Amino acid sequence: MRTFNKTPLALGVAAGMAMLVASTGAQAASAGTDFGLTAHTIAGGMAGASYTRPQEASAAVFGNPATLTQFPGVNFNFGATLIAITDLTVETDTTLDTVLGPVTSHSEHQSDADNYIVPTLGITLQVSPNLTLGLGLEADAGLGADYRDAPLQLFAGTFNDVQTLLGGIPGNITPLDGPVAAPLLVEVISFNANLAAGYKVNEQLSLGAALTIGFGLAQLGTTGPTTGFDTVSDLVVDGLAAGVGGISNNGVLETGILSNWGGTTSSVHDISLGWSLGATYMVADGITTSLAIKGPVEYKFKNIIYGDPATTGGAFVPGNTADGWQHLDVEQPLEVVAGVAFEDVLAPNLLVELDVIWKNWGDADAYEDAYEDQFVVALGAQYEMNDWSFRAGYSWTEEILQDQPESTLGQITGLGNLPLGAGAAALDGVAVPPVVEALAVDFIEIVQMSLLPVLWEHTFTAGAGYNFTDSVSVNGFVSYSLGEEDSRNLEIAAAAADIALGNLGLGGGTGGSTSSITADLDSEVMVGIGINVALP
Fold it and tell me: Which is nearest to 90 in space by CA: 27, 164, 149, 159?
């Protein structure tokens, strides 16, 4: 069993429908934003371990192109995989140190992005005894989270609670218009079309190369109005910009460094090119080793997000546009894969493959600000019995989120009126003491826990296939990734809360406020099915 497919017309219609469904959902994957081979319907049953001895054409086209020489004749495969994230809940916890005693709040926010479909299509054609060509189409990467219906809260609503306890805020300070909250969202989808070739140098060695044409869709920012930022800015950042004690205008210094803002995002797209190189070597009968390198695919998303030039660094920051719209380069990372497969060695009719994958997130545009380099280990097995094939697999994914991120997110200098990176650094030139960039670091940690929390480490898979004839088979799989939890302490936000309470005369005097954000990511489930056709 080497591939899965339908007639060319049916393939085109089905692929188009699958991509339409995929483009309406928000996505995430168990290895950063990359799916790798985990959504292919045979490779998925083997935890994606198919870079050395793939059993379907699409896994060869998008994995290691040297493996194309393992597919004689003509092979087709088409499949679709449903990916369901059972729940993504972001929790914020804050305790304010006030003269009233500790004021503690807890809030929970669920992402509306959950289910989506990933298509895979592969075709191979052996044009000579040594040369095989391949082409394919897949959704290779995706990420999504949507909090428009449950805006993420800073300080977990504790300032709102203090305001309620006091019946308002002392003096003439502008009252809060709600929790300090923002309706953040992100969606990134990458479709790849690959043209590949594999050449058998001799009976032991095969080499391969592939050209990737990528189409990326992206959205990042807020979809509605924020709340609470005006007052917190007045109490913390604006007051510090003129020195502590410099509050004016009936108790409020309204310099406008931070304030509420509305929607900041647009839906954008781009086209990019990538490449893959691969080799396989049979060291003994039934024992094959492999090495593959997949180059990065970089999308340049123009005018993706809005940042007010007056409050995100303005003329102090090179590249800030006059209208506030900013660009963002997003790069799917370079990856290196080494593998070994044992076929009919450990037992008759048994294939076992082990792949080790390294992903260079630390140098990938945009992701490098939240992620770090990552290893993935995938172990898969297939046992054939008469017309049936049974598969199982396990993968371990190294933790990807940086423990101490910077204040940057790609080239973005600000979100709405919130400065980031170079914009925050520029404003720290006028803030006394400089706290804007430090607050921006806390915001990036919020982004890590809410928009980019790909936390799954352990995935278990199972699959099966049935040969209807010598040429046609159907295959399916399920995978289950264990839920994970991670958190970040928002130390600067807590310190800012103490400053605000002090300016109000409400501080407890010990500076003991704390604030944290937690990503509680439940299990991820994949279910896929596909049809394979192999012709002599």
Answer: 149
Fill in the amino acid letter for 210. A
Q: Please report the sign of the dihedral spanned by the C-alpha atoms of residue 309, residue 409, residue 450, residue 139.
A: positive
Letter string b/e over residues 117-143, b meaning 16 or more CB atoms within 10 A of that residue's CB: bbbbbbbbbbeeeeebbbbbbbbbbbb
Pairing of strands 418-419, 335-343: unpaired
What's the CA gap between 141 and 234, in Å, rounded? 41
Are the CB atoms for 369 and 404 separated by under 8 Å?
A: no
Q: Across residues 61-85, what is the average pLDDT?
A: 95
Residue 63 and residue 293: Cα distance in Å, rounded? Answer: 9
Taking residue 294's Cβ as centre, other Cβ atoms within 10 Å add up to: 28
Could you tell me which residue, 58 or 267, shows the higher pLDDT? 58
d(CA 291, CA 357) in angstroms, rounded, equals 10
Task: Give φ, ψ of 259 to 5 degrees.
Answer: -160, 175
User: What's residue 226's pLDDT?
Assistant: 87
Helix (H, G, I), strand (E, B) or coil at 453: coil
Determine what percent of the chain is predicted with pLDDT higher than 70: 83
Question: Closest Cα to residue 337, out of 136, 36, 40, 55?
Answer: 36
Q: What is the DSSP string of 190-203?
A: EEEEEEEEEEE-SS
pLDDT at position 333 over 50? yes
- Per DSSP, 316 falls in state G
Q: Are 175 and 167 in contact (CB under 8 A)?
A: no
Q: How confident is the model at residue 287 (pLDDT cuts 50, 70, 90)?
A: very high
Residues in CB range of 355: below 8 A, 6 or more apart: 48, 49, 50, 51, 52, 290, 337, 338, 339, 377, 378
Q: Can you give the pLDDT at residue 446?
A: 83
| Prediction pTM value | 0.85
